[in-house]
Design brief:
Elements lengths: L7 E6 L5 H16 L4 E4 L6 H9 L3 E3 L10 E4 L6 H9 L3 E4 L3 H15 L3 E5 L5 H7 L6 E4 L16 E5 L5 H14 L13 H13 L5 E5 L5 H12 L5 E4 L15 E6 L5 H13 L4 E6 L11 H9 L19
Parallel strand pairs: 1-11, 1-12, 2-3, 2-4, 4-5, 6-7, 6-8, 9-10, 9-11
Helix pairs in contact: 4-5, 7-8
């Protein structure tokens, strides 16, 4: 339907960057500005190809493990968190570190440590192999079992059914997580829950927004990279909530003509590690295809911001510089900008 301006875009708000992602990306940018040396980053700082490529262009060097970092050099840990073993490896190499772990992930780490000290079996709902899950499980490997989803529940074994707690990865589908937890409760009726939600506010807000849009959308487009857990979940949530079709794209170059056949309304959202510039590019492309009527659909307002990592704040303070930030704009635009 290209060229005919009769199509509608339902634009999810909130979408895009969360506070933890903004903090991590800004930490790398500030480190590149303030340190006169190579800045290494263990793993992708956030799961978004555009963001990582942009930071590479500015000089950041991304590595898989700390043993790739020269002894005594500066390394930043990604937003997904690390296990104590990784921290020990960094210390053995005398690395100077900046920990950009999202504070909401750190909260889950602390819960794992606390329940392990109380000798609980910890059932960690999350995806095997995801950096965040590896970091959390690494806090108490002898106490943690990873539960990938409802289908894993029957495989779980515990020492004492009266002393079991569940925790979760922060970026999961809320509905699927609760389905897993409900099945766990059937097996372990006294299963304890985390003191507060482990699934982060941004993940929940973005899922609520896409659920509102999906029933009225012939096509839902989620901007986000394939290794972004929360972006993939948004695509799945959209289908479950009634979207006729849903696709995840890294950029407009991945759009396919056949997706638009018979489509009159397009829902648009983006994962929590996606800068809004990519969404704006998508909206411009959709307008070219005839979807020029953009209707924002707001389900929450977000104004949370986290302080930069302590190590970076101390370095900036020693130089008499402020770590004050305004609400993200431009490449770091959030749903609220």
């Amino acid at each position: 339907m290209g060229g005919v301006s009769t199509g509608t875009v339902l634009l999810a708000e909130p979408r895009g960057y969360c506070a933890g992602v903004d903090r991590a990306v800004v930490a790398v940018e500030r480190a590149l500005e303030h340190y006169d040396e190579t800045v290494y980053v263990r793993h992708e700082i956030v799961h978004n190809k555009f963001v990582v490529d942009r930071l590479k262009e500015k000089g950041a060097v991304f590595v898989e493990e700390v043993d790739e970092v020269p002894e005594g050099a500066l390394v930043i840990f990604s937003a997904h968190g690390i296990s104590p073993k990784v921290r020990e490896m960094a210390e053995e190499r005398s690395l100077r570190t900046i920990d950009a772990t999202c504070p909401l992930v750190t909260k889950v780490h602390k819960e794992a440590v606390r329940f392990a000290r109380q000798d609980y079996d910890i059932l960690l709902v999350g995806h095997v192999g995801h950096e965040e899950v590896e970091g959390t499980a690494g806090e108490a490997p002898e106490h943690v079992q990873i539960v990938n989803g409802p289908e894993d529940v029957d495989k779980v074994t515990v020492r004492d059914p009266e002393k079991v707690v569940w925790l979760s990865q922060t970026t999961l589908s809320v509905d699927e997580t609760m389905e897993t937890v409900d099945r766990l409760k059937e097996r372990f009726p006294t299963l304890q829950a985390p003191p507060s939600d482990d699934i982060c506010y941004a993940t929940q807000n973005r899922q609520v927004a896409i659920k509102k849009i999906a029933p009225d959308a012939d096509l839902v487009l989620v901007v986000g990279s394939p290794n972004s857990s929360n972006s993939v979940r948004l695509m799945e949530v959209a289908l479950e909530a009634g979207a006729k079709s849903s696709h995840r794209i890294d950029s407009v170059s991945e759009l396919r003509e056949e997706w638009f056949e018979g489509v009159e309304s397009v829902g648009v959202t983006s994962g929590a590690s996606v800068p809004d510039v990519l969404v704006q590019e998508l909206l411009a492309e959709l307008a070219e295809r005839g979807f020029g009527d953009v209707k924002p659909v707001r389900t929450a307002t977000e104004d949370l911001m986290f302080s930069l990592p302590r190590e970076l704040r101390q370095e900036m303070k020693s130089r008499g510089e402020s770590d004050r930030r305004t609400k993200p704009t431009g490449d770091r635009a959030t749903a609220e900008s």
